[in-house]
Amino acid sequence: MDTPRKPPADPTIIPILSASNFVIGMGGFVIVGLLNPVAEELAMGTAEAGWIMTTYALAYAVLSPLLVSATGAIGRRRVMAAGLAVFAVANAISAIAPDAFTLYASRILAAAGAGVMTPVAAAVGAGLSPPERRARALAAVFFGLTLAQVLGVPAGSFIAYTFGWRMAFWVVVLLALPCLWLIWTRVPAGLSFQPVALADLRRILVDLPIMLAVTFTTTFLGSLYVVYTFLAPLLSDTMGYGRDGITLALFMFGIGAVLGNLLGGMAADRFGPFRTLLCLTLVQAALMPVFSALPLPGFAVMALMLVWSTFGWSFMAGQQLRLLTLAPESASVVLALNAAAIYIGAAVGSAAGGLILSGFGLSALGIGGGIAALLAATHLVMSHRIKP
User: Fold this and answer.
1) Do 227 and 243 fall within a single domain?
2) Which residues span the domain enclosing 152?
3) Do residues 192 and 75 touch, judged by C-beta distance below 8 A?
4) Same domain assignment for residues 133 and 280
5) pTM confidence score
6) Residues 131 and 21 in one domain
7) Residue 125 in contact with residue 19, Cβ under 8 Å?
8) Of 179, 167, 178, nearest in space to 91 by CA
9) pLDDT for 282-305, tens place per residue?
10) CA distances from 23 to 106, 109, 139, 351 (A)
11) What is the pLDDT of residues 84-127, one digit of tens each?
């Protein structure tokens, strides 16, 4: 891990970066809770509205590594401030979007800002910490993204159903402004790191065993997003949920995300990353078809949301440990590619869910997600057997 030129003594930097990631997480994924009102106002079908999430995810996956590389020689404070400012402007455009085209374009712009802010914040948080505390610093920086699943996305859904979906985007803009000010005033000017050479990236991209391992992130998360992207219309159609029911379901999903983050690392340390990941993938294959059995009693749905999310979010620690074990000399490169694979998975899963929805209806999403999880398990076993 590179070290900064001038390490600051300010202990508030890590919390500031975490808070900024909360805004990024809320603004990026709040659309999951807004699909119904957005589709209704802009005269879009549910599957078409799902492409809003797909567009954001694809744009993030493509733009993030390019923009981070292009800005490698610029001070980290300026890069983070610019990324968060672009993200705020993009969400303001989303809030006033008069049509679907403008909304799609604003999500691409938002992905560009988020794709710069989040990975640079991770590098700064780890680089400003002593070696023995870097893992905890990274966890703290990314905690904001997890907290966004617990509070930000459900709150956005509640706001959308109460005050209109545009207000949810305005709240993201308002939350971004103090974070932008704090980054500019607290992060030291001129902070920089040695960028990774493009040759390192090219070497990893042509390494089949490592890339098979990296792209498991895409297939695993893709299976989850088959259902997750269309969760609001699914629960509305099958359970009759409106604002309160959907908000509560997303809140339970967020609680599961926190539990998964805590339990995933413990499981990977105890049982090893491969066995942990295989277990999680098979559990997903068993759980997601239950969504095709809705309606169920309300308490069962909330329990399903909690357990589904817990096992889903337990995935990241084991996958990162697996990648670091496979390519310890190229840690920053494989983790950057893993971050891109997350958003490719979200895009692929959302697109697949849209196709399933168009062809077979909402009730088929759970079965489709379960089949996708079985494919992810097959991918994991294959990549495990092909050693670097």
Assistant:
1) yes
2) 11-194
3) yes
4) no
5) 0.75
6) yes
7) no
8) 167
9) 999 999 999 999 999 999 999 999
10) 16, 15, 16, 25
11) 999 999 999 999 999 999 999 999 999 999 988 988 887 787 67
